[in-house]
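This section describes the prediction task in plain terms. A model, or a person checking by hand, is given the sequence of a single protein chain and must write out its three-dimensional structure as a string of C-alpha cells. No templates, partner chains or ligands are provided. The sample shown here is typical of the held-out split.
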Amino acid sequence: MAHDLSSDAALAVELVEQAGALAARIRSEGLDVEEKTSGSDVVTQADVAAERLIVERLTLERPDDAIVGEEGTSRPGTSGRTWVIDPVDGTYNFMRGSDWWCSAIALTGEEDVLLGAVHHPALGETWLGGPDLPSTRNGARLDPLPDTPAEARCATTYLHPPFFKDEVGVAFARGLEQVGTLRMLGSGTMDAMAIASGRWDVLFQHSVEDWDRLPGAAIIRGAGGTSTQVDAAGVLWTVSGSSRAVEDVAAALVR
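The expected answer:
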C-alpha cells in the first residue's frame, strides 16, 4: 500500500514522541545498564522497550516496509522503503543523567532518505524534515542555516580518542582547520538538531551507522543544509551541516 509523505511524517512524529516519553519514564524509575563494546557503549532496558514500541506500531501501520533498529530489529520488507530506528540516541548521556539525548527515526526510499524525525524529551522539542519536506521544530519552520565564517564555525563530533589515531587523526586535524571551535556532547543526532536549528555549523565523524546518521542528515537537508560521505584515511566520514562548511570540511578531510 502506498503512503504519502505527510502521513509518513505524522506517524514518525508520533513514534519518536511516544518512544522518548517511554524512555524518560523508565529512566525515572531506574535503569539496568549493560555494556555492548565498551564502558561508553551501553544499552538499557529503556532502549530496548522504546525500540519495541516503535516496531510494534510500524508492524501494524506499515507492514510492507522494512525496519532496522539499533537494538537488533531487522525485518525485511517488500515496498522498497525502510524505517531506521534509534530509540535512544546518546545512551551514555541518558544513563548518566544528562538530558542531551533523543529518540530518532528515519524513513528511506530506494535511492535516498525521505524524512527524519527527532524528539528531545527534556525540552519537549520535536524536529521533522527531509529533502522534500521543509524542516520544522514543534511545527514551526526552521530558519535557513547561517553561512558562518570558517574562523567562527562550531563543529561537533563523536570521536573518542581511540577513533582518531594515526592517519585518521591527521585527517581529523585537517577538518578542524575549517572551524573555530569544537564540541563533543555525546549524541550525534542531538548535535545535528543543534546544527539544523542554527546553533552550530557542521558535524563530522567517521564510521557512522545509519541510525546515527540518517535522521539528522534528513532534517539538516530539509533546513537547506547538506550531508555527504567521503573516504579519507581509510575510513568513511559523514559530514553534515551548512553547505559551505560541509564543502570546506569534506575537502580538507580528503586533501
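For orientation: The longest strand covers residues 82-89.
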